[in-house]
Amino acid sequence: MYYFYDQYQSIKPSDTSKESFKKLELAPSTRVEKLKTQLRVRGGNKYIKLIHKIFDAPSTLSLQQYKTDDYELYLFDNLSQMINRIKEKNELHGLSRIVAGYAWEWVSNKNTEAYDIVIGENQLKWNSISVDWVNSPNSIDEVGCIHTTQGYDLNYTGVIIGPELDYDFTSGKLTVDKQRYKDKNGKNSIKNEEELLDFIINIYKTILLRGIEGTYIYACNENLRRFLQQFIPPYAPSSNEEKLIQISNTPTESSIPFYDLNIAAGSFSELQELENVKYIELDSLENRDDYFACTVIGESMNKIIPNGSICLFKKYSGGSRNGLITLVEGRNITDLEFGSNYTIKEYSSKKITDEEGWHHEEIVLLPQSYDSNFEPIILRDEETIDFKTLGIFVKVLKK
């Protein structure tokens, strides 16, 4: 019989203790093999050592930021940006998910309309299923926890470090707020806060080692964020893609359509047939027939999309749109910034079921702007019928 034991992945009191494993290890019939390298994460031992030092021995860290061409590691000040980055990576590479520490109650388990994690303007829900959540259809729009991600490999992981963990600059140590840690099975039998801190640290070290290609981090507490930014580079949208963008009048094997919504007198389908459609070269894009680009005008989405940005969209082909930024078209839509029947907003809807099946009772298109004067566009009843989702926002190509 073979046993694999990693003391750093012990996340609750019911897990096998170091003492129990040590007893087995010292038994005369036991042969011990030590794993010397970890091949999952492309950042290799350099990245793994950084994570262990941050959480186990912060005083030994040198004041320099992690840099490598082999691995994407960024600290985010803006949670919305991190969520969008993960969704962008999921569109391009798959298996990219948001994961968080257990610092919020799982209220959506009993009330599916409720949100579990509310941070600023971000309203998120925990995983809707517990078994194989990573591969479930809605997982990209949800937040996984340690119990649904431990043992899984992801391409990119966006980690939310909750308010239960902080950093004390005076003592030079990480601290825990037991009241903010919500895993009852993981804390009820623990009376010593140092022991609880060890479990919570192991949780974060475990989920920070899920991402094969990259890891993104958002810390809720300001002190912890200030501490981390000494070693982890801040996220800043790269200008490299802006330099590579080429707009032409003729399509090529590596181009996608670039539509000007301002000249659209009719429907989007008519716009696609216009002779003056232009094209954008994007070398790194797979399945390019599923994508298009257009310019987003206005300030109603400026938290995520600066005015005048050229943006990449994936053609909508079905599935849940709740919480996604969508480009929509409808006769009953009036967007003063676009000056047409198009708008780009965060999508939310309510559905009802009757003898004819399900249909939309209400569709709400939410602005994400620093200007509070922008109001949601609300479509009800008959207004929801003449309505079409054209694309899902992926990322800004050029500001």
List strands and helices in order, with pairings.
Blueprint: H1 18-25, H2 44-56, E1 72-75, H3 79-93, E2 96-100, E3 117-119, E4 122-124, E5 143-144, H4 146-149, E6 154-161, E7 165-168, E8 173-176, H5 193-207, E9 211-219, H6 222-228, H7 240-244, E10 247-248, E11 255-259, H8 268-271, E12 278-281, E13 291-296, E14 309-315, E15 325-330, E16 342-354, E17 357-366, E18 377-380, E19 387-398
Parallel strand pairs: 1-9, 2-5, 2-6, 6-9, 11-13
Antiparallel strand pairs: 3-4, 7-8, 10-12, 11-12, 13-14, 14-19, 15-16, 15-19, 16-17, 17-18
Q: Would you kindly provide a written description of the structure presented here, covering whatever features stand out?
A:
By secondary structure, this protein is an alpha/beta fold. The chain contains 8 helices and 19 strands. It has a 10-stranded mixed sheet. Strands 1-9-6-2-5 form a 5-stranded parallel sheet. Strands 3-4 form a two-stranded antiparallel ribbon. A hairpin with a 2-residue loop joins strand 16 (342-354) and strand 17 (357-366). The longest helix has 15 residues, at 79-93. It starts with 17 loop residues before the first helix and ends with a strand. Mean pLDDT is 81; it is low at 239-243.
Poorly predicted regions: 239-243
Mean pLDDT: 81
Q: Give the strand order, joined by hyphens, for the main sheet.
A: 10-12-11-13-14-19-15-16-17-18
Outline: globular
Biggest β-sheet description: 10 strands, mixed
* Counted beta strands: 19
Overall helicity: 10-25%
Given the structure, what is the number of helices?
8
User: Could you give the order of the helices and strands?
Assistant: HHEHEEEEHEEEHEHHEEHEEEEEEEE
Q: Strand fraction band? A: 25-35%
**Coarse structural class:** alpha/beta
Global Rg: 24 Å
Terminal Cα span? 58 Å
